[in-house]
Design brief:
By secondary structure, the protein is an alpha/beta fold. The protein contains 13 helices and eight strands. It is globular and about 45 Å long.
Length: 308
């Protein structure tokens, strides 16, 4: 199983230096991360929305070690909101945030993360869009859900992410479905112990379907985060069984992966949102994309061998 090895490498400073220095790395990373700053990302937003797609944008970077860095992450998102405002895209361009970027792991991190993310959620609401709180490793989730609940008191459209491989997620899904929240369901991309998470792919897939059925039958807005053709087809069938209209759920996929499928789903009338990351601190994000899907790793290794 290469996934756990790659996830371990994502936390290695030595591997970070080695991979970052490889001549081919930038051109491979560009497949998944189309820019380093907001000036790079605005043309991407216009291109994707012009093709009938929607976006959720992530300013990458999770190694926050000081309140000043957390404030800088907040300001980067506020700058993004300022640049989105004149585009008047509304919810066609939303944002995804990791609370670790807002200081969640620092001393007093729960309160710090809430105080930093709230201005971003407020600014997003002012331009007619919203924010989704990304899920990270299982030790952070109680804090994430508490912040999500607090934000929804004033901004009920605030979304969150749940991960199918965690044992706790079926109960989380039932609670969130009843509350009418926006929920993105993903398989999960962090290395988690067998005490809290399924380790077998088939068990994870089965959990994904059970959880998605709960979300579709609930009162919320399900967001199907998957590139798996089988799960996409099951998602369509579950939506049909639940009597959901095309604007009552959506699909989400990563920028640079299965782009033809993005366009196919949009052409069929589905809401199709592309998770689009940008920024200079791309390493951890990039390594998790390799860990999630063997084809991504093969693509990277082939490029290293042929053009490095």
């Amino acid at each position: 199983m290469l996934g756990p090895v790659i996830l371990a490498a994502s936390r290695s400073d030595r591997m970070r230096r080695l991979i970052s220095a490889a001549p081919v790395t930038k051109q491979v990373v560009d497949r998944f991360i189309p820019g380093e700053d907001v000036d790079d990302i605005v043309p991407v937003v216009l291109d994707l929305t012009g093709q009938g797609l929607e976006l959720t944008m992530d300013v990458v970077g999770e190694d926050i070690t000081s309140p000043a860095q957390a404030a800088a992450a907040r300001d980067a998102y506020l700058e993004l909101v300022d640049r989105l405002k004149p585009l008047e895209l509304g919810t066609r361009a939303e944002m995804s945030v990791k609370l670790s970027m807002f200081g969640q792991a620092l001393e007093g991190g729960h309160e710090l993360a809430l105080s930093n993310v709230r201005p971003v959620v407020e600014a997003a609401a002012e331009i007619g869009t919203t924010v989704t709180l990304d899920a990270e490793d299982h030790t952070t989730l109680d804090s994430m859900f508490a912040i999500h609940e607090e934000l929804r008191k004033d901004f009920p459209q605030t979304g969150c992410v749940i991960q199918a491989y965690l044992f706790r997620t079926e109960a989380d899904a039932r609670r969130l479905a009843e509350s009418g929240s926006r929920v993105r369901l993903v398989k999960g991309a962090y290395k988690e112990p067998a005490s809290v998470a399924y380790q077998d792919k088939h068990e994870i897939d089965r959990a994904y379907v059970r959880i998605l059925r709960t979300l579709m039958q609930g009162e919320g807005y399900p967001m199907i985060g998957s590139h798996d053709p089988r799960l996409i087809a099951i998602g369509q069938e579950l939506a049909h069984q639940a009597g959901r209209k095309p604007d009552e759920y959506e699909f989400q996929m990563l920028y640079g992966i299965r782009t033809d499928e993005h366009l196919r789903l949009a052409a069929e009338g589905h809401r199709m949102r592309v998770y689009t990351a940008y920024g200079t601190d791309w390493y951890g994000y990039f390594m998790r994309r390799l860990a999630e899907k063997p084809a991504n790793l093969r693509f990277f290794a082939r490029s290293m061998l042929t053009k490095g």
